[in-house]
């Protein structure tokens, strides 16, 4: 009875083998569509990327400069060499010999290589060094703060009334110590000047190509 019941229930369903074959066919169709769209997208991106590119080719035994990280700072790259090209591996990659040892070779992209041209004329000897010069004083006229003589009688606005002019003369006579020819200084007040923000500016490390 149990066997007959199982056979009757499974009779209306699709066999497992047919289901697997159909699923495999659908996945294959989807994979082909994905590959087609991916090739189109890659071709479009490559055309945008290669708009300003120039075709370069290197020959075996050519000497090249190699863009490598600096020994002092791994984030700073600079041209080093020259090294010798052993052979092309692909249209854009080359096998480069890094030393006199033929076994020490590595594959590099053409973007990291620059052809080395031997100098045609002998270069004059170059002496390296540096010279320290003292800083020149700024051409800023500083006002002395030493006590000076009293100022002459200032010119009073003639538009003032006569009694106002007499009051102003009396006021200047009472404060002759403050009316000097040279500026003074005071400790009664202070001024704080804030030039920059307190927040420290931090940048993420990145490689600086010396191309």
Automatic annotation (TrEMBL):
Protein name listed in UniProt: Integrase p58-like C-terminal domain-containing protein
Location of the Integrase p58-like C-terminal domain: 81-115
Highest taxon in the source lineage: Eukaryota
Organism: Pleurodeles waltl (Iberian ribbed newt)
InterPro entries: Integrase_p58-like_C
């Amino acid at each position: 009875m149990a066997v007959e019941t199982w056979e009757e229930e499974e009779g209306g369903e699709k066999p497992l083998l047919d289901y697997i074959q159909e699923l495999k066919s659908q996945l294959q169709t989807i994979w082909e569509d994905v590959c087609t769209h991916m090739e189109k997208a890659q071709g479009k991106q490559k055309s945008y990327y290669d708009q300003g590119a120039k075709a370069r080719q290197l020959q075996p035994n050519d000497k090249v400069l190699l863009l490598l990280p600096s020994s002092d700072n791994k984030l700073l790259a600079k041209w080093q060499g020259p090294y010798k090209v052993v052979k092309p591996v692909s249209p854009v990659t080359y096998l480069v010999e890094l030393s006199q040892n033929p076994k020490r070779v590595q594959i590099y992209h053409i973007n990291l290589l620059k052809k080395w041209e031997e100098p045609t004329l002998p270069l004059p000897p170059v002496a390296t060094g540096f010279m320290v010069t003292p800083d020149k004083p700024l051409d800023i006229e500083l006002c002395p703060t030493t006590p000076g003589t009293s100022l002459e009688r200032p010119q009073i606005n003639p538009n003032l009334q006569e009694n106002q002019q007499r009051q102003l003369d009396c006021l200047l006579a009472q404060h002759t110590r403050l009316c000097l020819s040279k500026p003074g200084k005071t400790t009664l007040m202070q001024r704080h000047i804030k030039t920059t923000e307190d927040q420290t500016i931090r940048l993420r490390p990145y490689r600086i190509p010396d191309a």
